[in-house]
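Subject: design request, 191 residues
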């Protein structure tokens, strides 16, 4: 062996750990799994509460032909729990302080959509609907308002999704980092 040549590289434990694809993915993405699970459980619980308000006949609790104040209140609370759980889940996919502008706009659209749903669903209670208290029921105009609010929430969630990794040194795949390190070592040996 010549004096200038360096000995062959020894494979370290770190290199072995980075060689399997499962561990490359695991090392590249550090998502807070507890927050994601909690958000998903909250969203599923909210869906059950939403169903209880929207379709009480599924639970053998239907006592009226019209959708009244209690049902509207329950499905709006369920919708709020769904929105909060889903927001927690999607927000956990972003690293702290690295949200894009679209994600910030999306989080505001989600909250705006929920406010639209509440005001459209409770229009009779707030005195803006066509029916006065105590004859409150969920009419077709209120249903359209809640549908518009839900569409706004859905648009906000689409903007809140993290479609690609942020552009910093920490987000490079482990294999690419290993190639860069090997290339740097080869460049040092050439000089």
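Subject: RE: design request

Done. Sequence follows.
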């Amino acid at each position: 062996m010549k004096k200038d040549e360096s000995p062959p590289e020894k494979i370290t434990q770190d290199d072995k750990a980075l060689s399997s694809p499962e561990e490359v993915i695991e090392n590249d993405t550090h998502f807070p799994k507890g927050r994601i699970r909690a958000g998903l459980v909250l969203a599923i619980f909210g869906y059950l509460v939403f169903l209880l308000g929207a379709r009480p006949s599924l639970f053998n609790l239907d006592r009226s032909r019209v959708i009244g104040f209690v049902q509207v209140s329950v499905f709006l609370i369920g919708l709020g729990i769904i929105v909060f759980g889903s927001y927690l889940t999607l927000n956990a996919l972003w690293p702290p302080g690295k949200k894009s502008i679209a994600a910030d706009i999306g989080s505001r659209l989600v909250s705006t959509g929920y406010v639209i749903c509440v005001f459209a669903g409770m229009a009779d209670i707030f005195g803006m609907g066509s029916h006065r208290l105590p004859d409150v029921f969920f009419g077709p105009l209120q249903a359209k308002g809640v549908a518009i609010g839900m569409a706004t929430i859905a648009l906000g969630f689409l903007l809140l999704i993290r479609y690609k990794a942020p552009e910093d040194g920490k987000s490079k795949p482990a294999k690419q980092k290993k190639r860069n390190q090997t290339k740097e070592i080869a460049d040092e040996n050439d000089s």
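Helices lie at 13-17, 21-28, 33-54, 69-92, 101-121, 140-160, 174-190.
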